[in-house]
Task: structure prediction
Amino acid sequence: MKINLEGKKALVGASTQGLGKAIALQLASCGAAITLMARNEEKLKATLRDLDTSFNQKHGYIVVDFYDFNDFEAKTSAYCKHKNIDILINNTNGPEAGGVFEKNIDDYQKAFDLLFKTTCHLTLLAVENMKKNSYGRIINTASLTVKEPLSNLVLSNTMRAAVAIWAKTLATVIAPFGITVNTILTGLFDTERIQQLNKIQANTKGVSLEENLKLMTQEIPAGRLGKPDEFGYLVTFLASNYASYITGTNISIDGGLIKSL
Ligand SMILES: NC(=O)c1ccc[n+]([C@@H]2O[C@H](COP(=O)([O-])OP(=O)(O)OC[C@H]3O[C@@H](n4cnc5c(N)ncnc54)[C@H](OP(=O)(O)O)[C@@H]3O)[C@@H](O)[C@H]2O)c1
Result:
């Protein structure tokens, strides 16, 4: 099985490091032309240089802040007027950590804008052209919190579940057009986000960073954090022709961490 994405255009969110970057690298190595999104233009340019161009594909980027929805909407709408998206990776930075009594209604609104509104807006834009081309892949990066809420991540628990059920609803109506929509339930991957969450947890528990990371890792049956590349492989498979019959699913990638079915 060889994945060939030559001629496909992919828009990948939050892609200058971590999971987003791993996805962009892998899609590009299979031939897709990538448009990256993040805030820091220098990091975007550096990531652009790391992307494979052996299929003569042209990569680009959009400077966006997912927290500034009006600006995000304007920039992505302008982009979609001139460019098709064949593969849409709805990935943003993670929402703030915190428990149910630490967050107020404005925090929920902010998390809704970050995780739900960006996904909904971009997907509806992209689907128009995907329908015309009878091909589309929409892949949402979510979290294991969809299945098993974590007490210190109430914003993630809530908004990721909203994205997952919305994606499921969408999948049923766009399947006839050759468009698939899937949501990934991410376990614990070795990225900056996990380092930040480790710091918060270690402070709360009053233990060292190393100690907390060890406790975190002990919970994972595979005995280690996931590698971003492993995440990129899954997304690239879902983006390919080989995954044309997989839609409306929540797919876990977690080294066995999720305990429920
Ligand atoms: N890593 C895990 O174990 C894990 C587990 C479950 C869920 N997830 C979710 O997966 C997603 C990706 O996580 P990750 O671990 O890859 O994160 P990460 O390593 O922290 O990377 C974050 C990326 O988002 C960009 N970014 C940050 N704030 C932004 C903003 N306001 N607007 C636009 N771009 C922004 C960053 O670039 P700039 O700073 O240049 O903008 C960077 O490219 C997150 O939603 C996270 O919650 C991750």
About this structure: Residues 105 and 111 are 10 Å apart (CA to CA). The radius of gyration is 18 Å. The first helix runs from residue 18 to 29.
